[in-house]
Amino acid sequence: MDKAKEKVQRFRAREQRILDAALELLLEHGEEKVTVEQIAERVDIGKGTIYKHFISKTEIYMRLLMDYEKSLTERLKTALAAAEQGDITAPARAYFESRMADPSKDRLFQRLEEKIIALNLAPEMIAELHAIRNSNASALNRVFERRMEQGVLKKVPPYYYYSTYWALVQGAVELYHSKSFADVIEDREGLMEFIMDVGVHIGDISGRRHQEEGRPGGEATDSSFG
Q1: Calpha distance 160→144 (Å, rounded)
Q2: pLDDT (tens digit, 9 = 90+) per residue, 29-73?
Q3: Where is the sequence biased in composition, kind Basic and acidic residues (predicted)?
Q4: Per-residue pLDDT tens for 173-202?
Q5: How many Å apart are CA 105 and CA 95, to the nearest integer?
Q6: pLDDT above 70: percentage of residues in the chain
Q7: Could you tell me the domains of the chain?
Q8: Cβ atoms of 68 and 19 closer than 8 Å
Q9: Taking 90 as the threshold, does the pLDDT of residue 221 lie above it?
Q10: What is the dihedral of CA 163, 219, 153, 174, to 10 degrees?
Q11: pLDDT for position 207
Q12: pTM of the predicted protein model
């Protein structure tokens, strides 16, 4: 490997360590208490080195938000391919699994985005984030439209389904952290899985869910998605 490529790889690796450290600190202490100095100390680099990668703490946070949304994009691509092969619930599962795998992280990112928007700190990056999210929503809406045409889902405006997915995740994440329900919920992970299952099958009028539950492995094999 030539020196130029090696230098680029080291730069990118250090940048990822900065992002990983920032996320760790945010989850540990909350966004109000994390400083650039703390991030630098966690990575074991100088504060000035941080600014070789990011112009501000806000840019670090925005990169975390965009990487999170892009990870959903990649999962949806894989899930859409699986749907074409007959696993028609794959896109819905990809959405819920991506956002509910780590409720603490999802809740943190919700707060960060709301605060950055409220303070108008990074309008161009927010616009880029929303463009990625809108693309993901459009991909899911096309799935909803196809499934409604096939008589699998109840016919409503497609955004009803995407909005319901969003609402279920928001509510689930808040419920996961709720102190009011702490004494009621004995199995938080089990509850999250149940909510996810409800979301994946919401609006299903085909009877497919009962067929899946009665089939060994529980997965659909019908290739009629495409």
Answers
A1: 10
A2: 999 999 999 999 999 999 999 999 999 999 999 999 999 999 999
A3: 206-216
A4: 999 999 999 899 999 999 999 999 999 999
A5: 15
A6: 91
A7: 1-54 (1.10.10.60), 63-214 (1.10.357.10)
A8: no
A9: no
A10: -20
A11: 72
A12: 0.86
Closest CA to 95 of 34, 166, 193: 166
Average pLDDT, the chain: 91
Closest to 134 in 3D by CA, of 41, 72, 195: 72
The b/e string for 70-97 (b: 16+ C-beta within 10 A; e otherwise) is eebeebbeebbebbeeebbbbbbbbbbe
Amino acid symbol at 204: D
Q: Per residue, what are the HEC states of the chain? A: CCHHHHHHHHHHHHHHHHHHHHHHHHHHHCCCCCCHHHHHHHHCCCHHHHCCCCCCHHHHHHHHHHHHHHHHHHHHHHHHHHHHCCCCCHHHHHHHHHHHCCHHHHHHHHHHHHHHHHCCCCHHHHHHHHHHHHHHHHHHHHHHHHHHHCCCECCCCHHHHHHHHHHHHHHHHHHHHCCCCCCCCCCHHHHHHHHHHHHHCCCECCCHHHHHHHCCCCCCCCCCCC
Dihedral pair phi/psi, residue 153, rounded to 5°: -110, 150
CA 139 to chain centre: 15
pLDDT band, very low/low/confident/very high, at 2 (cuts 50, 70, 90):
confident
